[in-house]
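Issue 218. Parser rejects a valid record. Input:
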Amino acid sequence: MTATVASLTSRNPADPADVLLRMPVPGAFAAVDAVERARAAQPGWLLAGAAARSAALDRVAAAVDASAEELAALAVREVGKPLTEARAEVARTAAIWRYHAQAPYEPTGAVHETAAGPGLLLTRRRPHGVAGLITPWNFPFAIPSWKAAPALAAGNTVVLKPAPEATACARRLAEIVREKLPTEVFTVLPGGATEGNAIVDAADVVSFTGSTTVGRVVVRGATARGIPVQAEMGGLNAAIVLPDADIEQAAAHIAASIAGYAGQKCTATSRVIAVGAALDPLREALSEALRALPVGDPADATTVCGPLVDEHARDRVRDAWQGLPTLAGGTVPSGPGWYAAPTLVEKVPPGHPLLREEVFGPLAALLPADDLAHAVRITNDVPYGLVTSVHTADLNAALHGLDRLDTGMIRINAPSTGVDFHLPFGGAKASGHGPREQGRTAVEFYTSSRTYTLAPAGAT
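Output the parser choked on:
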């Protein structure tokens, strides 16, 4: 959610003069009405049965595949996602719908013997009703899909409130989905904080992805109503590099995690912790890797680092590196578009905002550590705990030396970015609240468990 607005404008981050759409926001009453219409449609969607829901989700996957180039181009234009990443996101979006198309056939409960006497005990999972989804702009197709697909598979209906910056993408996705589903089963409601708050106040289950500040507001609102809520929020992710690591490979992975999509991912690397003798070779290799990354027009398939989503985001990144020793980048290219060069800084003093707050841009700090235990302490010494990447050839360090990390995900010899949609996704501390997203855990979140006792008639 964002600040209250009366109208909505979506611009091309690479060319702000290119306006995709302008529209009035619908308001709180429209949000509540959308939820009520979805609630009226929910029993029919559930009772249509597993085969109908599975087939509908599979048809959505096929339609996304058929529109892949159009959708990728729209993501490039509206949110500045580099073309290669945009194509990968669209492919993942289709895969998410196809994966969850099998969920309606999964068991919804279990049968147990009673502790004593005749009868049976049953557990059964049932949908909550209307799922209210509040999503960010940085993955305009994948994140709405990995929330909506499991919710729909379980028999819920969906009302989606996308970030204003990704309104055109959300509306196009809605057109594709609504063609394959019954009326009112999937609704997109554009807007800002007013519409988002109204959905939290009206829906039966809420899933949010966005900033920690807004996520906490969503969690408080849903918790006050006693409805299930999950929130995937910010990150201040570290990459730990041990002396035995393949330094060139680690530098390539970390550079991509810092600068890919201009660092606008909750899983981006923003702190690079070099252990012992790894510091000097990593400083050189990572600086060179960042300087070599293609920066520019997101419509160019070779671009890795495109524009920031808006002027405020660009200025926030620029302000964050001011006064710090710069190893790479530290410049704002001239010309149209909200660009910032991929930047690596060092000698960041303790307590600096860069070590406490998520910048959400192509910027990282290089930090020294004496040993692995020290690196783990540095990693944990932030309010967030989403993902840590660790680069080492030592299997013992990978499997046992990282047990004290306070992060929800650990990636060994791989970039911190990257999501496996068939496995749980989420973080600790200020990075997440509630059950994990994705995989089978997603369907569990969108359902509630009931226990049935079946005793024979006349039993005492």
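Fixed in the parser; the record now loads. The longest strand covers residues 15-24.
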